[in-house]
Structures are given as C-alpha cells and as structure tokens.
Amino acid sequence: MAVVLSLRWPGATPEQYEAVRDAVRWEEQVPEGLSLHVAWFDEGALHVTDVWDAQADFERFFAERLTPAVQEAGMPGEPEARFSPLHRRFVVPGVSGGA
Fold it and tell me: What are the tens digits of pLDDT across the range 45-57?
C-alpha cells in the first residue's frame, strides 16, 4: 500500500540537507519505491513530505543509503516521522524535475 511520509527534523540545516542530498544522490539514483519528495525549512527544522510505494521501501532506503550520509553530515538527533496511507495522488501534467 502506498504511503505518505511526513517528517520533521528539528535542528537540521539546509547545508546538512544539501550535503546528504549530494552524498546519497537520490535524484540521480532514485530509491526503489519513491515517487515524490519535497523538502522545506521553517521554525528551525527540516520538513519532508514523500510518497512511497510502501513504508518498507523507505525503511530500506533509510537504513542502507540515508543513515550513513546523515551521520557524516552531523545531523542532530532523530527525525519525527509519521506514515499515513495514501488516499489519492495527482500529478499536474507537464510537471517534472527539481526546483
């Protein structure tokens, strides 16, 4: 079942996020099961919303690829994560790529 990941990581900085993104290269080597990723910062925290084919896909990606880069970047503590069943997904025609 497809899921929405809502993640909040207090204390994480844009520089740490970019270091992790550069190390993991998820935009070039897309993790199995990932179909959407958006990230933003406010109130001293990194916020992420992802759509995954299954929670297990994210958990595998986190363990195998993300954790080593997160540790290397020195990201503080642990993220607050919540998974919810995806009800509906709509992608606007013509929208693709990163911002």
Answer: 999 999 999 999 9
* Integer Cα distance of 14 and 44 in angstroms: 10
Distance CA 8, CA 48 (A): 7
Q: Say yes or no to pLDDT of 3 above 90.
A: yes
Residue 31 has φ and ψ, to the nearest 5°, of -65, 145
Write the secondary structure of the chain as one string of H (helix), E (strand) and C (coil): CCEEEEEEEECCCHHHHHHHHHHHCCCCCCCCCEEEEEEEEECCEEEEEEEECCHHHHHHHHHHHHHHHHHHHCCCCCCEEEEEECCCCCCCCCCCCCC
